Amino acid sequence: MESHSTEILLRWIVLIPLLGAAVNGLLNRKLPRQVAGLLACTTVGISFALSIVVFLRLLGMEAEHRFLTDTVATWIGYGNLSVDLGFAIDPLNAVMALVVTGIGFLIHVYSLGYMAHDQGFQRFFAYLNLFIFSMMTLVLGENLLMLFVGWEGVGLCSYLLISFWFNDEANAAAGKKAFIVNRIGDFGFLIGMFLIGATLLPHLQGGEGLFSFQTLQHHTDLLAPVATVICLLLFVGATGKSAQIPLYIWLPDAMAGPTPVSALIHAATMVTAGVYMIARMNFLFVMSDTAMLVVAIVGAATAIFASSIALVQNDIKKVLAYSTVSQLGYMMLACGVGAFGVGIFHVMTHAFFKALLFLGSGSVIHAMSDEQDMRVMGGLKNKLPITYWTFLIGTLAIAGVFPAAGFFSKDEILWKAWSSGHHILWGVGFLAAGMTAFYMMRLVAMTFYGQNRASAEVKSHIHESPATMTIPLIVLAGLALVGGWIGWPHFLGGGAWFEAWLEPVFSGGHAAHGAVVHSAGEAHVAHDVAMEWTLAGASLAWGILGLGVGWFIYTKKLATADSFKKFAGGFPHRVLLNKYYVDEGYEAAFIRPGFRLSKTVLWKVIDAGVIDGLLVNGAALVVAVVGSVLRIFQNGMVRFYAWSFTIGVTVFILYLSFSG
Amino acid sequence: MSFINDHILTLVTFVPLAGSLALWTVIRRDGLARIFALVVALIDFVLSLHLWFHFDPGRGDDQFVERFAWLLSGEVTYHLGMDGISLVLALLTTFLGPLVILSTWSAITKRVPGFLGFVLFLQTAMLGTFFARDMLLFYVFWEAMLIPMYFIIGIWGGQRRIYASVKFFIFTMVGSVFMLVGILWLFFQAGSMALTDFLNLQIGHEQQLWLFAAFFLAFAIKVPVFPLHTWLPDAHVEAPTAGSVILAGVLLKMGTYGMLRFAMPLFPDGVTFFAPAISILAVIGIIYGALVAMVQPDVKKLVAYSSVSHLGFVVLGLFSLTPMGVAGGIFQMLAHGLSTGALFLLVGVIYDRRHTREISEFGGLAHQMPLYATFFMIATLASVGLPILAGFIGEFMILFGTFHSSTLVHAKLFAILAATGVVLGAIYMFWMYQRVFLGKLSNDKNRNLPDLNLREIVVLVPILVFIFWLGVQPGFILDKIETSVEHVLAPLGVEQHHESQTSESHHARILPAGGTGSPNFVVLEAESH
Description:
The structure holds two protein chains of two kinds. Chain A is mostly helical.
């Protein structure tokens, strides 16, 4: 590969899936299924291969100079506002690119099997390809506005795929909800961008890309005075896309989409976009302690809030959905305490094990004739062995059991929270980790252990999934098991290679926060290592305890679970089961009043009553008179109208001409 | 060729009128009338391409100027000219013309030649309005737009067509009368009807305020600006599809065009004085239009109210008094013309089949009409301003331009409030889409509806292509208008490209000394081409 020709691959990484989407979308059912599926998988496969090529090229460069850029054209150029249609890659989005295209490819393959009998097969793959295109635009975009293009694009794909089976009104409603709630976040994002733009615009040299990340990084001094406001506004956007409090409400509903979609978009990739965006803007966030603290608190709060809901859900995908919300909270917590690299590390490991868990749940749902309620499952361990064993690995990973992937990333997050002095947030995260282990084991026990509780009809159809589905499960299980090792920390004798890889991107951030242990003094290091060992041991024990309790209650002592349901009149259980009634609260506080205000006050009273009724009333009298006159002409010829008008105008103009 | 080049504006303007005269006199067969009208509109479009390709975007003043004495002893002239702003709006008009005519193929069955004659007549009036550089000529074209629209609604409209057409007529007339008084006052001051002479006048502070108010009222009704908008939903609901497309696509832009071309450069003191109030009305329009759109039971009325919201963005952009906001406003005029034009065409498609537009009559249409649902989705996305579609560029530039305006007080607040329109737009459009297209195909009457036919596809595809094209390559438009925007804003003292480093000095330059008007009017002398 010629060294200078690598850059141009960036645009092809993005555009090739668009090509797949276009062909599948335009030809649709005219395309045979095999061709459509093969095309979709191939385009993403090519993107993945190209991402690897670019990654290797970066790897071969000096750490400080790992940066490639590919400018396609000017997108918006007006006055000194200049925004390029361009892509750039550095160690941070190289990781994202590999995750998105790699996991994306596996899930495309899985979908071949999962969607095999679906009517909208070609349409599904068109949307899925379109999603990869949008997500790669988001990830590789050279400036904040390109990121926003991808941001909106993935939102659209999410909408289209959630409501994919639109015959069911509930699915359509869930898609719409996702889009609208995300738009609320986008509102903050937009204002944040305006503030950045308005702050920089007067100082820019001609041709300098206003929203280019390079430009922003050069001008942090100018942005410093407004950094807090900008960061909080951008974070509003992130709470939408990455499902944080208070905008997380769309994600659990989004499970209405086909399960591969839940795995790809609503677990592994799109929902981490908010984390990526914050990591991308790290140089701005580190300038504002307030914004960082808000990010950390919201992250921790989301982590524990969502995992508490997951404790009692009976729908297998709902448990995983709330689990995703909770894990995204961990990522935010990492960013908030200045450990952006660790946040991205968790984005990656989470992509492995959560994609695995969702695809595993898809395999279960597939086997159970589209049943999602775990209360009628059970005993699937022997009937779905591959699904079971891979699922178990995913469970160990998310529970943070050594040496699965989740152990390294989640433990690192908790450690960074502790070592940066956020002891309360560490405590919250620690508590949520135990709950995570518990609800995941509950899920495994209800699904795979004990007796099968399904009807005889369903039972007779239970079968292990085809190879297109199980192979991605096995690959992902492998990744969930060993994928965390690239972040093997120093205190366990590893090289913390992942952190070193991202170091150049976040070096500014680490210095500002002093959160890097390794750069501190010797004595400090010794003390920290002891503490690190202690905390890691504690959280490992805590995770295993959670798993054990979950296993014990849901296989041996089901009565305990029942007694919790009756505890305190069943109130706590009911609150959790109904997700703290947050949706109902929003409905009562915003949606219904807004609708009523619009309909009764604005439309009926102001529009029809005041403006039309009172103000136009005078004119209405004239209307009546003119109307009755007009009615006389109703039966006449059109030509009569036309000619009378033409003659009238002509006479008028002639009169004026001669009068002059 | 030089004859064409020298008289190109007259040709582009009056070729449709010639067509309409033919339709009213010699052509009697419906089929022939349709083909004839389509050919005329296509010829006009091709002619207008001459403008596009020979326009010099480096110049901000008028090009292709035609001017000769007309009335009195030369004080009133036949004076046409075109800058970048007129260019893009005229092209929008000639581009939509043939598509509109093609869309009426099966929808209009009574008095076909008469109807098409009015459509072509309207083309002439609209193009003339964009090109006129003599105020009386402008006023003649401006008023001439009323008549065909009045008949299009009043004869070929729905149940309450008389009410709607008369309401439309009276609203617009009322505003125009005030403007006419303003024009006459200026005429007596300047001794001529030439726009350039008006621009050279030294108008007193007080007079500027009154004159601005008179002009603004006329234009605000046409836009329409809240609370002068109530004629619009009625007009749209009663108008036949073609009427709605022209109304939303081009006619509404007359108001914002008039503000930019006349009210703003002529009366800078009026702009400074009224800009905050107008911005408030624009923001109210954005939010109010969206909320009322949300609760409409009729799809067409929903789209009509969404226009109130979208045009609020345009007005806000213009009165942000920043080149970016103004350019965004112009861009949004085009984007709205395309996306809302497409939406009205699409609503017409279903109305032709079902003769109702009540949302509750539908549901699950995507099962029965997948292609139609796809086209509607794209138009919906364009309407809500999804990036890489045209609507995003306009909204972004307007909001960003407003946000960083240093002349408009509380500009940031206005921008933030206006940006809520981005959320509200998604709510009313996606909710409507869900109720019409998704869910089960519950109503048996919708069971055998045919999907889009070839003619309908041919009408819609060019619009959708341009929606994408402008979203990906906005420079296509922005490059044409940049210098002209600078030129037209020059009297307001808004400096292009060299945004002042400190807002204080900017303010000092913007606010003219009270009572003397702005002494630094740039002379808009029409150069012969």
